[in-house]
Specification:
377 residues, mainly alpha
Length: 377
């Protein structure tokens, strides 16, 4: 899920963002937002009373759109094109090594910890789909609902969001290139903004229509389909894209950064506390965490830093943000297997979630960073 800045320590993050121009300054607050997002997801999965913690994924989607647009738009401005092959290679080098390790370890452990009468087959099928980045559709077809018991017992359930992200990025550079070349280069960024906004409006409307069952075609489990399908989630990435373009044009939020930071954090955390599995989601409900994240991203670029911005930029928070991809990958298999092995121990899931963090750190140090950075990223 999740596009991340380089993580050889926080100062190394001045390396180029995905796909393009070196960043002029490191946004530590963005790593802090990633830390918040993964903490919400992990807390929710571990059984803490944060019943809408699944909105952490929506926060990740907005951040991903923001980061990737800075790279793609920068490359378009410099060269007038996007090197699609290079873009794809960078994505593979970033995501696949850690994902492959987690999939291998999870499926190997499932041979010991899970029944061969059904769970092992489900895990194997999801692992195959996850490796090809279409786990979202495979999970939808097999269980139909993210919140169903059958889904929650699958240690690879969380790979659906990686699939959504990579499916979005499979078309995003090409769409951006087409939009850029529609008019003169001088109006390219404006063309991007108009195009992204139009696509975002359409995909949000589709999401609302699907969860509200206001559509003319027949779909099994429409709310679940809207939850898993990339074309109903694209507007969340595009919200981050639009913020990145607005900031590149020198636009800033009216009023103080502190006010917008508080409003943004309130929308994100409020969603995590007030929403739950019974909420019709995404649809209208997803607007709140998405808008809150967009406000936090915009506020972080304001001249005056708020207390919240400084808190998100604290070294230990940034450290968790650096590990957010790995922690997201490892926490859910740990939790699922802990609940299978110790079903009557209430704290087993919490302990498993905590134990998965140093595993994520080891994976990053030994697998992710050597492959990612030694290749010149």
């Amino acid at each position: 899920m999740l596009v991340h800045a380089p993580s050889r320590g926080t100062r190394a993050a001045t390396a180029p963002p995905e796909g393009g121009k070196p960043a002029s300054s490191f946004r530590a607050d963005i790593q802090g937002l990633r830390a918040l997002a993964v903490a919400l997801v992990v807390a929710y999965h571990a059984g803490l009373p944060i019943h809408g913690g699944f909105v952490g994924v929506d926060v990740f989607f907005v951040i991903s759109g923001f980061v990737i647009t800075r790279g793609v738009a920068g490359e378009l401005e410099r060269t007038g094109t996007v090197r699609l092959g290079r873009f794809a290679v960078r994505r593979i080098r970033r995501l696949l090594p850690a994902l492959a390790l987690m999939l291998t370890a999870t499926m190997a452990f499932a041979i010991v910890a899970s029944s061969s009468l059904g769970p092992q087959q489900a895990i194997s099928a999801t692992g195959h789909d996850a490796a090809l980045f279409h786990a979202n559709l495979g999970i939808y077809e097999s269980v139909g609902d993210y919140f169903a018991p059958a889904a929650e017992s699958n240690p690879l359930l969380h790979t659906w969001s990686l699939a959504v992200e990579e499916q979005f990025y499979a078309v995003f550079p090409l769409i951006s290139l087409v939009l850029w070349r529609v008019g003169k280069p001088a109006t390219g960024r404006r063309r991007l903004s108009i195009g992204y906004a139009a696509i975002a409006a359409v995909t949000l409307a589709l999401s609302v229509a699907m969860v509200g069952e206001w559509y003319p075609w027949e779909v099994d489990h429409p709310q679940a389909f809207s939850y898993f399908a990339t074309h109903y989630r694209a507007w969340e990435f595009l919200a981050g894209c639009l913020v990145a373009l607005a900031l590149a044009d020198g636009r800033r939020l009216p009023g103080s950064a502190a006010k917008w930071s508080v409003l943004g954090l309130g929308a994100v955390v409020g969603s995590a506390l007030l929403l739950d599995a019974r909420t019709i989601f995404p649809g209208y409900a997803a607007v709140f965490p998405v808008a809150g994240t967009a406000a936090l991203l915009a506020a972080g670029a304001s001249p005056g830093r708020s207390h919240l911005g400084r808190a998100l930029s604290a070294r230990w928070v940034v450290g968790i943000g650096d590990l957010s991809y790995g922690w997201y990958l490892w926490h859910w298999p740990f939790i699922v297997f802990a609940r299978e092995l110790w079903p009557s121990t209430w704290w087993a899931a919490l302990a498993a979630a905590a134990l998965s963090l140093p595993v994520a750190a080891a994976s990053q140090r030994l697998i992710e960073n050597p492959i990612r950075f030694d290749g010149g990223e």
